[in-house]
């Protein structure tokens, strides 16, 4: 895997994964309140 491909992987895949994770965490906090 080249560095350019790795950067594409991180810029495309990670935001989606982090976004989904953040939504789950926010959902948990909202349930607690």
Can you lay out the helices and strands and say which pair or pack?
Blueprint (H helix, E strand, L loop, with lengths): L2 H30 L1
Q: Report the helical percentage.
A: over 70%
H/E series, N to C?
A: H
Tally of individual helices: 1
Content of β-strand: under 5%
The biggest beta sheet reads: none
Distance between the termini: 45 Å
Q: Would you report the number of β strands? A: 0
Q: Which structural traits does this protein have?
A:
33 residues, 1 helix, 0% strand
Give a nutshell description of this structure.
The protein has one helix at residues 3-32.
Task: Give your account of this protein's structure.
With 33 residues, this protein is mainly α. Helix content is 91%, strand content 0%. It has one helix spanning 3-32. This is Stage V sporulation protein SpoVM. Pfam families: SpoV.
């Amino acid at each position: 895997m080249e560095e350019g491909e790795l950067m594409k992987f991180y810029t495309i895949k990670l935001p989606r994964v982090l976004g989904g994770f953040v939504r789950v965490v926010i959902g948990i906090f909202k349930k607690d309140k």
